[in-house]
Amino acid sequence: MKPQRIASLLASATEILYGLGLGEKVVAVSHECDFPPEVASKPRVTYTHIAANASSVEIDRQVTQRVAAGKPIYNIDVETLASLRPDLIVTQAQCEVCAVSHDDVLRAVQDHDALKDTVVIALNATTLDEIFEDIKRVGDAAACPTEAQVYVTDLRKRVEVVQAKAASAAATHRPRVVCIEWIDPVMVAANWMPELIDLAGGQSELTSSGARSRYTASSLLDPAGSLSRFRLPRGINLSEKWRCNQLFAFVPKRWRVPLRSACDCQSVGTALQKFGCCHRGQRLG
Fold first, then answer.
1. What phi-psi label fits residue 88: left (phi over 0), alpha (psi between -120 and 50 degrees) or beta?
2. Cα separation of 188 and 53, whole Å?
3. N or C: where does the chain have the smaller number of CB atoms within 10 Å of the terminal CB?
4. Fold held by 170-274
């Protein structure tokens, strides 16, 4: 049966659903869903226990403490979700601290009579190809496999265009790039981000495609200059320098100069932005 009511518990899943032309069928989204703009009017059925306006190090402390105590970082508003009666829920199974967990979603579906027939699909990509496969899986679950194949084909063409344009610049110089996913403590972005850096004409450092993001000693980043570019994929749109300036209130002083230079970089950054807004680059799925 073709799903008529879909709940997305992940920002990237919402973007995929709208990319497949299913926006009108989306009846609920997560607290982090912000694109496309139409989702602003959708009911929110998840929430966080973390103070999102805290400093980077304070957020990390809150997360670490809750995990150690066995407490959830996110929760589902099960009653609101059940009242919306979705027949398909799209969530994630990759990261326990980045969004509501797959287990929590399955538990909510099993424990509530109004959700017992709801199908759950979880995104779990770690590479660019796996992202494309996840899109097709969503298309299959939503009974629109043809639309999903067309969408993936179009995305692959966009990647090829960026790769071709970046190749000429990369032929003479491939800047060494580190993507910073979390500032304090430093976490280097992995999964598909190293692949995007390479496709955009850079040389990814300190991690590899398909690996999990991990904490990294700040000394390895060598702010003295041997690493020529820093990227901040989560929470920053590098086309808006004022947002980067706002971020410096949360950045240790020793990083402010190299991070400012990152906001001014052109070649790799321009190519990465053509894959999508930099602040959305590391979204799960």
1. beta
2. 21
3. N
4. Rossmann fold (3.40.50)
Rounded to two decimals, the pTM is: 0.80
Query: Is the Cβ–Cβ distance between 15 and 35 less than 8 Å?
Result: yes
Question: 194 preceded by cis ω (within 30°)?
Answer: no
**What is 6-124's CATH number?**
3.40.50.1980
The 10s digit of each residue's pLDDT in 18-70 is: 999 999 999 999 999 999 999 999 999 999 998 878 888 898 899 999 999 99
Look at residues 158, 142, 179, 128 and name the one whose alpha carbon lies nearest to residue 285.
Answer: 128
**From-to residues of CATH 3.40.50.1980 in the chain:** 6-124
Taking a C-beta distance cutoff of 8 angstroms, is the pair 173, 179 a contact? no
The residues pairing with 121 across neighbouring beta strands, listed in sequence order, are: 90
Report which of 180, 177, 94, 179 is spatially closest to residue 131, judged by C-alpha positions: 94
Gap between the Cα atoms of 166 and 69, Å rounded: 47
Residue 139, token pair as written in the block? 């298309």
**DSSP 8-state class, residue 4:** S
Q: How many residues does the chain have?
A: 285
**Distance from the first to the final alpha carbon of the chain:** 25
β-pairing, 26-28 vs 6-8, is parallel
Residue 243: its H or E element: helix 241-247
